[in-house]
Design brief:
The protein is α+β, with helices and mostly antiparallel strands and about 425 residues long. It contains 12 helices and 15 strands. It is elongated and about 100 Å long. The chain starts with a helix and ends in a 20-residue tail after the last helix. The structure holds one RNA strand of 87 nucleotides.
RNA sequence: GGAGAAUUGGGUGAGCGGCUGAAACCACAUCCCUGCUAAGGAUGCGUACGGGUAACUGUACCGAGAGUUCGAAUCUCUCAUUCUCCA
């Protein structure tokens, strides 16, 4: 949630930032107006309420002293009508404001480049150079089927399109990757947590998936529960509505979960293979920090994910997402893109974002800093998307005969 | 599935119509005393929003929502969660 007080105080500043994210300044001035309407309505209500409280107190005194209460009672009743009316006005103003405010994305940092889509992202650096192949490298679905690692048809049979099944070494590699990633992250100071795959509406509002992106989520029939699109949702919301102590920060966590996405609007994109599935495995990093420390922790997270790829000997690059590609809640995001020789391009394998206090404000995650309470900064990032990592291993480690070399770091996990 | 009980501030827990935003204890913070792997004393200490330079002050919040009442943490109803007992 954006800071409405800041919007009120520095409308032009906030407006300038949000215009870069495509938010119209008309919407923002409506928001500002609604905020002021609410404040006025609240003040009005509180005046009548204060009068009621005072008169009720007086009532008690009258009763005790045996005075006649009829006149006072009439005054109270008259005032009560105003209280009720004012409360109704205030409620409406509240709902109107919240409905609108929840749909406004986070303000991008000044370091975020302007741009329309992923083509305008700025490359930060490359890590490990792609190797030259003496043959034409194949795409992963070909390799996966040749090796019997992934069965796309049977996934469709069991569920629907964009579901797949891993067999044998494919399945074992997934498991090895998950364990390797969790251990690696733990070595970098991230505490492992295991969380529910179903969450309620409130949690999704806290991290920003709702109310705007409900069509991307799988919802349980007849229940207000959704399958998580990322572990970011349950892990970030672990501390919603809580006040942490400064000493507990930074809180660094890592979790493995399956993730579920409808991929609405992705029809026709990556329909082959396992780049874009409805269900996929992901190991996630989530951190909560003081505002002062959040960039430091952000760098730790980026390095963690990048070093993970390096450990797996996978060439990749870091890109700074432009305004058009930036997510709803992010103030800035660095994507890690892994080289896929079969596709002859870099593809996203991790996305690391600092949401600053945007999610904390929605989910009410605060910490006590001496006397006052402050919203924490929340950060999240994948380390890594397991399926895509498997894809990258297949494509980068393929031999001319179609066999695939196992990365050294995974061998202990496979009993090799 | 049925019957009961519970849900209070960071924690434990009292309160069961106005004197309660809430006792007490613990934790925490500051100060004093003391001098050694610790104890004692004093004071402060919920959250959110608003007004005020500030001291301070208004409103709301005692699981959630609705109701009764001049007035509700306290009474009633609905829901959620937890616990105990019974099938």
């Amino acid at each position: 949630m954006i800071n409405l007080k800041l919007l009120q105080k520095d409308f032009d500043g906030v407006s300038a930032k949000l215009t870069r994210k495509g938010v119209s300044s008309e919407l923002l001035s409506t928001l500002k107006e609604k905020f002021e309407v609410l404040k006025t309505a609240k003040a009005e209500f509180e005046r009548y309420q204060a009068a009621r409280n005072a008169m009720s107190k007086e009532f008690g005194v009258y009763k005790r002293e045996g005075k006649d209460i009829n006149e006072l009672k009439a005054r109270i009743e008259e005032n009560n009508l105003k209280v009720d009316a004012a409360l109704e006005v205030q409620r409406e103003a509240q709902v109107a404001l919240e409905t609108l405010a929840m749909t406004v994305p986070n303000m991008p940092d000044d370091t975020v480049p302007d741009g329309a889509d992923e083509n305008d992202n700025i490359e930060i650096k490359k890590v490990l150079m792609p190797k030259e192949f003496s043959f034409t490298p194949k795409e992963h679905w070909e390799l996966a089927e040749e090796n019997g690692w992934i069965d796309f048809e049977r996934g469709v049979k069991l569920a629907t399109s964009r579901f797949s099944v891993s067999f044998g070494m494919g399945a074992r590699l997934e498991r090895a990757l998950i364990n390797f990633m969790l251990d690696f992250n733990r070595g970098r100071g991230f505490e492992e947590v295991s969380v529910p795959a179903l969450v309620n509406r409130q949690s999704l509002e806290g991290t920003g998936q709702l109310p705007k992106f409900e069509e991307d989520l799988y919802k349980m029939d007849g229940l207000d529960l959704f399958l998580i699109p990322t572990a970011e949702v349950p892990v970030t919301n672990l501390y919603s509505d809580e006040i942490l102590t400064a000493g507990e920060l930074p809180k660094k966590m890592t979790a493995y979960t399956s993730c579920f996405r409808k991929e609405a609007g992705a029809a026709g994109r990556d329909t082959r293979g396992m780049i874009r599935q409805h269900q996929f495995h992901k190991v996630e990093l989530v951190a909560m920090t003081t505002p002062e420390k959040s960039e430091e922790v952000f760098d730790e997270m980026v390095n963690c994910a990048s070093d993970l790829l390096t450990a797996l000997e996978l060439p990749h690059r870091l890109v700074n997402l432009c305004t058009g590609d930036l997510g709803f809640g992010a103030a800035h995001t660095t994507d890690l893109e892994v080289w896929l020789p079969g596709q002859d391009q870099y593809r996203e394998i991790s996305s690391i974002s600092n949401t600053r206090d945007f999610q904390a404000r929605r989910a009410k995650i605060r910490y006590k800093d001496g006397k006052k309470n402050t919203f924490v900064n929340t950060l999240n990032g994948s380390s890594l998307a397991v399926g895509r990592t498997l894809v990258a291993i297949m494509e980068n480690n393929q031999n001319e005969d179609g066999s695939i070399d196992i990365p050294e770091v995974l061998k202990p996990y496979l009993g090799m």
